[in-house]
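Please check the following.

. . .
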Amino acid sequence: MLTVDFSRFPLAPGDRVLDLGCGAGRHAFECYRRGAQVVALDQNGEEIREVAKWFAAMKEAGEAPAGATATAMEGDALALPFPDDSFDVVIISEVMEHIPDDKGVLAEMVRVLRPGGRIAVTVPRYGPEKVCWALSDAYHEVEGGHIRIYRADELLGKMREAGLRPYGTHHAHALHSPYWWLKCAFGVDKDGDKAPLPVRAYHKLLVWDIMKKPLATRVAERALNPIVGKSFVAYATKPHTPREDQA
């Protein structure tokens, strides 16, 4: 399940890509399949080891084209272990809402992104996220949980302050908002067989949708995304010069 729309965020074979806070690696895997030179970075060592295993399996299965590379590594988003201008593309998906110093993370991403490079930022959308917070304190008060809710103009403003030039936005995953509302209403800590029937039933629907991608749910989600899309997605470029940024 991808949050970044690669039809709006073009990726060329050979692009150097940083998936920052990669988690389970969904965007890193897609970039690898598209022929990029991918670095998947996360502070969670267990997840990074799993991502590395999947990279190896993809290579073995021939899922990545010739010339594509993939590296999984632990790292700190506030102190990236890369020189300036190291990447053509940076992706940070559903991460910034967890980090107290979000301006520091943006500064580091801009530092390692080459002039003319592209960045994709995704965060939980304000409206659906407010519902989750209202329904459940446990949803956002757990260690490492969400510490803020972004309004779209707030996030875009911070991106501009960091030296980026936003060029497009959209919303994603409308079908997932009701699932999280149900989770919050019945208890976010109740998973698997312990989850109440409505939560389990809706989860099965989402899994079916992800696996089968039926036309009906694809059309429904596209129609609902502007209204209740769970994620807000913003795309931006790093200008070549300060003068161009001020133009």
Summary: The CA atoms of residues 33 and 63 lie 6 Å apart.
